Hints:
By secondary structure, the chain is α+β, with helices and mostly antiparallel strands. Helices cover 19% and strands 48% of the residues. The protein folds into two domains: 1-29; 31-149, Immunoglobulin-like (Sandwich). The chain is built from three helices and eight strands. The protein has a four-stranded antiparallel beta sheet. A four-stranded antiparallel beta sheet has the order 5-4-7-8, with no helix packed on it. Strand 7 and strand 8 form a beta hairpin.
Amino acid sequence: MIRSVTKVVAVTALAVGVLAANPAYTAYAASAPYTPEGVCGPGFARVKDGSRPLKSGRDTFGYVYLMYNRRTGYNCVVSIKTAFYRTATYTTATLTVKGSKPKTDAGKFKYYAGPVKVKARGKCVSYWGSTRDTRLDFAEATGGRKTFGNCG
């Protein structure tokens, strides 16, 4: 019995040590402390088809959100990291109004890129985001909707 308990304790300690030493594994353990409503500000609400994962293969590194403020007619896009947050990695948030040039916030951010706000009442928009990991391969996770929609 003592030998079994000792073995369990040793295996558990080894697993904790591996996870603590490798941030690539611990990055998925929790989520970022921000919401798209909080980042975009008062009056912004999620819209239909307004959330897409930032994916690299089967891994999800975060989400890009499209928000709308009915009172002001502004759209807002924010990319919120759920992996590798607290570490500054290249992250983007892009909002495009049909017929206009894309507006992007890009840089090395710890938690999110954005908010990107554009007045688009009665116009169609597309949105896109990306982020990179901190491992040696610097995989890029992307997502969003490149087709125009939410024409409100």
